[in-house]
Structure formats: structure tokens, C-alpha cells
Amino acid sequence: MSDAAAALLLVARPAPGVLLLTLNRPDKLNALSPELLGRLAAELDTAAADRETGAVILTGAGRAFSAGADVADMLARGTEAYTDPARLSAWRRIETYPKPLIAAVNGYALGGGLELALLCDILIAGAAASFGAPEINIASFPGDGGTQRLPRLVGRSFAMQMILTGERIDARLAERKGLVSEVVDADALLARAIALATLIAQKSSAVTPYAKRAVRAADELPLAAGLRHEHELVVEAYGKADRAEGLRAFAEKRPPRFTGQ
Question: Which of 65, 79, 169, 245 could tie 60 with a disulfide, CB 3.0–4.6 Å?
């Protein structure tokens, strides 16, 4: 990997079991170039296989979480920039990352940046954060899941309003509409994200992906099918060594010693 590619994504370990990934194109408001998306997907691939990683935080450097797609790439390649198999593969790998993923939205989350945040399991926002789907302003509309995921969080009417007007909303309105779970002072955002991630990382990294899959299924399945899927996942998770350790620890009145197995 070249130094330039590596610099697109800052990687840190701020607490045991916690991986912090920072989109690092602040001069471009962290626009999602193919190279940046590829770097992010590759780092998540590594984290997925790492038993020591229990939770991941995604944030942005500078004034933005991400202001969206790389317009320069779209101008240069047209439709090919959207249909590029490598780009689509990166999005799919981020979407299917199995472990808990927290978005710490520190500024603008617009267009593809909003869609990237929507791939995360928990969204918290700094007080100065703003969210929007401005694609309609350039005669387009969200094409990386925004038209499907946004209504599931904020309802059809408000999703339509955001997508058809292109207007931004602030963090407090995003919280009221259910787009984010918490709003904190900007200078407390990263600390709060790390605290949440640390709490999650202390659980079994073998079992939290099952919980994530069960909750995510609620977006896609009717209730009866979702309940069956939940049951199947619980039974499968029962086979994990950490599940047995959790039961023993409870019976012995001691903290569990999870190994991620």
C-alpha cells in the first residue's frame, strides 16, 4: 500500500477491543473517493477477522464526517464512477461488516456521507453535525441505499422531504426523527463514542454479531419471519464457547472472561 493510500484513513486503538477509523481527506470534506472507500473496506475486512476487535468507530477528520461522493470522479467517469465494480464491492463489504459499527458524526454527513453513516449500527452526533441528501440539487438522488434505509429510520414523509428538497437538517432534528440516537457537545463526541464502543467490546465478540444480525433483520423481514430468524440465531449462538462462559460466570457471580469464540 502506498503512503498516499494509507493516509486516506487514520487507524487507531483508543481502548481495548476498540478500533477507531477516521476518514482523512479534510481538504475535500472527506469525499468518498474510490481509493478511500477501498481503504475503509479493506480495514473492516481485517477487523472482521480479528478476534480482539469488538467494536469499530467511524468518524471524519476536520469539518465533515463525509460530504459525499467524489464529484471530480463523477465528472471524469460519468456513470462508470457509479457502476464501478470495485466501488460497489467496497460498499457491499462495509454494509456487511459483521461486528458493531458506530458512526461518530462530527460535521457534515451529506449524500454518500449520509449513506455511509446509515450503514452503521449506532449513530451519535456532535451538536454541530448536519445531515442531508442534496443529490436532487444536481439532478440525481441517493443511489447507495439512501432511498431504502432513510425511510426505515425517519418515516416515508420525512425521508421524501429530505430527498426531494435536498435541505439539510441539524443534529437535534436528526435525533428527534430517530436518525441518530444521541447528540453530544462536539468536544465530547469522540469520548462518548469510545465509551460506547468500549462497553460493547467488553461483551463477547463472538455473540454481538448475532445480535446485530437479528436487529438488522427487522428492517427486512415481516414480524413472524423475523421472530423465526431471531430464534435460529439464538440457537446458533448457544454453540459458542463465550455463551457457556457467560452462563458459568453468572452462576459463579463473577465477571465473564470472554475469548471471542
Answer: 65
Catalogue the E-assigned strands of 152-241: 169-170, 182-184
Q: How confident is the model at residue 244, as a pLDDT?
A: 93
Q: Which of 64, 74, 23, 27 is nearest to 44 (CA)?
A: 23
Q: Per DSSP, what are the bridge partners of residue 12?
A: 20
**Has residue 221 been placed in a domain?**
yes
Q: What is the rounded distance in angstroms from the CA atom of residue 236 to the CA atom of residue 102?
A: 25
Cite the active site residues: 69, 112, 115, 135
Question: Which pLDDT tens digit goes with each residue over 136-149?
Answer: 999 999 999 999 99
What's the number of domains the chain is made of? 2
Pick the more confident residue, 92 or 71: 92
Question: Comparing C-alpha atoms, which of 49, 52, 42, 48 is closest to residue 97?
Answer: 48
Residue ranges making up the domain that contains 219: 208-251
- SS3 at position 211: helix
Closest CA to 213 of 53, 91, 99, 47: 99
In angstroms, the CA 161 to CA 150 distance is 11
pLDDT of residue 83 exceeding 80, the answer is yes
Q: Return the CATH number at 176.
A: 3.90.226.10
Q: Are residues 59 and 116 in the same domain?
A: yes
